[in-house]
Design brief:
42% of the residues lie in helices and 19% in strands. It has 439 residues and is an alpha/beta fold. The protein starts with a helix and ends with a helix. The relative contact order is 0.17.
C-alpha cells in the first residue's frame, strides 16, 4: 500500500508539472500571441485569424428596437431588444430553445428552416404582427470570414455541429432564404456578429472603458477594437477609426501540448486545429480529465485498477462533472460507481483542480496578451467583458484568472477589471445593428 501511495504522490506531482503554466511560460505565450496577432492583421499565415467585424465600438447614444437571434453552442435564443440612447438596454421578450442533434448534424437548409420556425413562433407567442418591417441582428458563434456587416462565410463548424452545405456559404443569405420560405419577408437581417463581439458590444454600450470581449464556455474566443490603419490585410474598413477584431483565439497554436492534450487532439474530428480551445474551453476539460483517469486506472493508481470500462466512452465526462467535484460533490452515482474510497475521491478532486487551473491560467495569459497589445505599459483602465458558463459557474475559475494577472502585472493588475456579462451575445448583436444604422 505504501508503494502505491508513493506512486500516487509521485504521479500527481508529475501531473502538476505537466499541466503547469508558470509566469515565465505565460510571458513566452504573450510574446507568441503578439507575433501571431501581427501576422494575422497583416494577412500572412497565422493561427489567429484576426477577422474584422466591419463595425466600430458603440458610443452609447445609439437607439432602436431590434430582434436578435443568437445561435451559440447547442442553444438558440430569440430576443427583443430596445436601446434608449442613454446606455440602457431593455429586453422585453426572450425565448430559448435547444437545437436538436439531428438538426446540428443534418442539412444546412433544414437547420436554417428550424431557426426560422423558432423566429416565427417567437412572433406568434409575443403577438408581434407582420404588418411592418423588423430589423434582425444575427449572432452566429462559429468561425466566419466576414466581408461586410451583413455577410459572413462559414469557415468551418465547431462545437459538434456538422450540418452539410453550410461551410463556404454566406450564413446571412441562408437565414434570409429560410425566413422567405416561412413567409417572413418583413424581417431584414441588418447585422451579423459572433458571440464574442456581441458580449463586447453589450458591455461597451454602457461602459466606455470596456475594450475586450471574451467567451469562456463550451468554446472560447475574444475580440477587441483595433485601429483601422493597423489592419493591413483590409483597406476598405469604412468610416470607423477602430474596427472590432474577432480573433478566433481558440485556434492559437503556440502552446505546448502534453501527452493528454495530444491524445485528445488525435482522436478529435478537427485533429491539429483549435489547440487553445482544446486546452481551455468547457467542451474539452472533462475529456482531458478522462484521459488522465484512464492512465491512472491502467497504472493501478485509481479505483484499484478497476472501473476502466466506465471511463472508456469518449466525452462521457463533462465539465459539469468536474464542477460538481470542485463544489465538494461527485459524479460517481451517475456512472454506477459505488463504494468509492476517500483516497480516490481526493485524487479525482486534485486532477480536476489541476486541469481546470491550467485552463484558467491560459485564459488569463491570453487576456493579458490582448490588453498589453493595446496598452503595453498598462497606463489606463481596462474592462474585460466575459460571458460563458465555464467562467461564470466553475468554482474558483475567475479567481485563477485574476491570480494569473496579478502574477504578471503586480499592482497594475488592478487596472484590469473583469466583468461577467450574462447573455450578452444576443443583446450585443442588437447594439451592432444600431451602430451600423447610425454610421
Amino acid at each position: 500500500m505504501k508503494n502505491i501511495d508513493n506512486g500516487l504522490d509521485n504521479f500527481l506531482l508529475h501531473l502538476k508539472g505537466v499541466f503547469s503554466i508558470t509566469v515565465e511560460d505565460s510571458r513566452d505565450i504573450i510574446k507568441a500571441f503578439h507575433q501571431e496577432m501581427k501576422k494575422g492583421l497583416a494577412g500572412t499565415n497565422s493561427s489567429l485569424k484576426m477577422i474584422p467585424s466591419f463595425v466600430g465600438p458603440p458610443k452609447g447614444t445609439e437607439k432602436g428596437s431590434y430582434i436578435a437571434v443568437d445561435l451559440g453552442g447547442t442553444n438558440i435564443r430569440i430576443i427583443a431588444v430596445e436601446l434608449d440612447g442613454k446606455g440602457n438596454i431593455v429586453v422585453p421578450a426572450v425565448i430559448r430553445h435547444v437545437i436538436p442533434n439531428d438538426m446540428m448534424c443534418g442539412t444546412g437548409e433544414a437547420l436554417f428552416d428550424h431557426i426560422a420556425e423558432y423566429i416565427r413562433q417567437f412572433f406568434e407567442k409575443h403577438h408581434i404582427s407582420g404588418q411592418k418591417t423588423y430589423d434582425l441582428a444575427f449572432t452566429f458563434s462559429f468561425p466566419i470570414e466576414q466581408h461586410s456587416i451583413v455577410s459572413g462565410i462559414l469557415i468551418g463548424w465547431t462545437k459538434n455541429f456538422t450540418a452539410s452545405g453550410v461551410v463556404g456559404r454566406d450564413v446571412v443569405a441562408m437565414l434570409s432564404e429560410a425566413l422567405k420560405r416561412k413567409n417572413m419577408e418583413f424581417i431584414n437581417v441588418v447585422a451579423l456578429s459572433n458571440d464574442t463581439v456581441g458580449t463586447f458590444m453589450a458591455r461597451r454600450y454602457s461602459d466606455s472603458s470596456c475594450d475586450m470581449g471574451v467567451i469562456i464556455g463550451t468554446g472560447t474566443n475574444a475580440c477587441y477594437p483595433e485601429k483601422a490603419d493597423r489592419i493591413l490585410k483590409y483597406h476598405n474598413t469604412g468610416t470607423f477609426g477602430e474596427i472590432i477584431i474577432n480573433m478566433e483565439w481558440g485556434g492559437f497554436a503556440k502552446l505546448k501540448m502534453n501527452v493528454y492534450d495530444q491524445a485528445l487532439d488525435q482522436a478529435s474530428d478537427n485533429n491539429g486545429m483549435q489547440h487553445l480551445e482544446k486546452m481551455v474551453s468547457g467542451m474539452y476539460l472533462g475529456e482531458i480529465s478522462r484521459h488522465v483517469f484512464v492512465d491512472m486506472i491502467k497504472n493501478g493508481l485509481l479505483f484499484d485498477g478497476s472501473n476502466l470500462p466506465v471511463f472508456s466512452e469518449k466525452y462521457m465526462l463533462r465539465t459539469e462533472h468536474l464542477s460538481l467535484v470542485a463544489q465538494g460533490s461527485d459524479f460517481f452515482a451517475e456512472f454506477g460507481i459505488t463504494d468509492v474510497k476517500e483516497k480516490d475521491k481526493k485524487t479525482i478532486r486534485e486532477v480536476c483542480r489541476i486541469v481546470s487551473t491550467r485552463s484558467a491560467r491560459i485564459a488569463g495569459t491570453a487576456i493579458a496578451a490582448v490588453i498589453t497589445w493595446m496598452d503595453a505599459s498598462l497606463e489606463r483602465n481596462h474592462t474585460v467583458a466575459i460571458d460563458g458558463a465555464l467562467f461564470e459557474k466553475y468554482p474558483g475559475y475567475r479567481d485563477c484568472i485574476t491570480d494569473m494577472l496579478q502574477e504578471l502585472f503586480g499592482k497594475k493588475a488592478k487596472r484590469i477589471r473583469i466583468e461577467l456579462v450574462r447573455d450578452g451575445s444576443g443583446i450585443g448583436s442588437a447594439v451592432v445593428g444600431a451602430v451600423t444604422a447610425s454610421s
